[in-house]
Amino acid sequence: MTTITASMVKDLREKTGAGMMDCKQALSEANGDIEAAIDWLRAKGLSKAAKKSDRVAAEGLIGVAATATKGAVVEVNAETDFVARNEQFQEMVRNITTLVPEVGDDVAKIQAATYPGKSVTVEDQIKESIATIGENMALRRAALVEVSEGVVAAYVHNKISDDLGKIGVLVALESSGDKDKLMAFGRQIAMHIAAATPLALTPDELDADIIAKERAIYLEQAQASGKPQEIVEKMVEGRLRKEYFQQVVLLQQTFVIDGKASVEQAVKEAEKEIGAPIKVTRFERFALGEGIEKKEDDFAAEVAAAAGTN
């Protein structure tokens, strides 16, 4: 059986806000698996959904480059936040981002492409920067968003420099209406996406495993009510539609710009001003370090080891 340590309990408590004893019990039930413990707490109604951004960390920059109908977003990682403020690193991220509309968003192809203004590849340029700056770096991911008619709007949150920051968003809007007004509205949608962190454009685009996981949690909670199974099933489906989908599906989220209408309703309202139908076809949201677990060093242990006391 896995030993449940105080640091594990502390970590789970910070992620969920649940009580210390509840966290200890959840970890025991989950045999030390923190993700399973989070789900256990949620099923018991003792924790809110932990945000992915609370569980991951990495340094570097998100770069964004957008024209009227095409936009690119990339993530380049480094070891420390200090490097993100290095002008040489910033220039490299910008240059890599500008390549994406030309070569596509496949990381291997970007790395093999010729670095702007030089005869070396992007991969070689990154290696050169590693040697010069003294930190490990990596081109992690990229995305390219296009529309045939309409606009691709962009937004950078926690901006470090022009088109560089901690969160980068692209959103594609198809419309034959006024392009300037459409771009302004698109930027509002992009700002909403940065703040609200939707997982998908519509319910149909949600990962089936994610829906199954949420349904299982709602089912366990509903069954505790003691109501007949057919009522329980309706309760579960109702909560999925009214609670979960409204939290994670872009078009069903409450539009943060006004805090009242859904994004879908805001799109319909904007059509009057823009003079034509609008269809949101795709979005990309890159948050720096999302999905990368950052190693947490035990400073006290390091000092003790250095002093020869361990």
Task: Present the secondary structure layout.
Elements (H helix, E strand, L loop, with lengths): L5 H11 L3 H10 L4 H10 L8 H4 L3 E8 L3 E9 L2 H4 L2 H17 L3 H6 L9 H12 L3 E10 L3 E8 L6 E2 L1 E8 L4 H18 L11 H16 L5 H20 L14 H12 L4 E9 L11 H8 L4
Antiparallel strand pairs: 1-2, 1-5, 2-3, 4-6, 6-7
Kindly provide the name of the CATH class of the largest domain.
Alpha Beta
| Residues in β-strands, percent | 15-25%
The number of domains is 2
For the residues shown, what is the average pLDDT? Answer: 86
| Helix residue percentage | 40-55%
Shape: flat
Helix-strand string: HHHHEEHHHHEEEEHHHHEH
The tally of strands reads 7
Q: Separation of termini?
A: 26 Å
How many alpha or pi helices? 13
The major pleated sheet works out as: 4 strands, antiparallel
Radius of gyration: 23 Å
What is the fold-level CATH name, i.e. the topology of the largest domain? Tetrahydropterin Synthase, Chain A
Low-confidence stretches: 48-57
Class by SSE composition: alpha+beta
Do you know the CATH architecture of the largest domain?
Answer: 2-Layer Sandwich
Summarize the structure.
This protein has 310 residues and is of the alpha+beta class. It has helices at 6-16, 20-29, 34-43, 52-55, 81-84, 87-103, 107-112, 122-133, 179-196, 208-223, 229-248, 263-274, 299-306, and strands spanning 59-66, 70-78, 137-146, 150-157, 164-165, 167-174, 279-287. It folds into two domains: 6-54 and 200-274, Orthogonal Bundle (Helicase, Ruva Protein, domain 3), CATH 1.10.8; 57-196 and 278-287, Tetrahydropterin Synthase, Chain A.
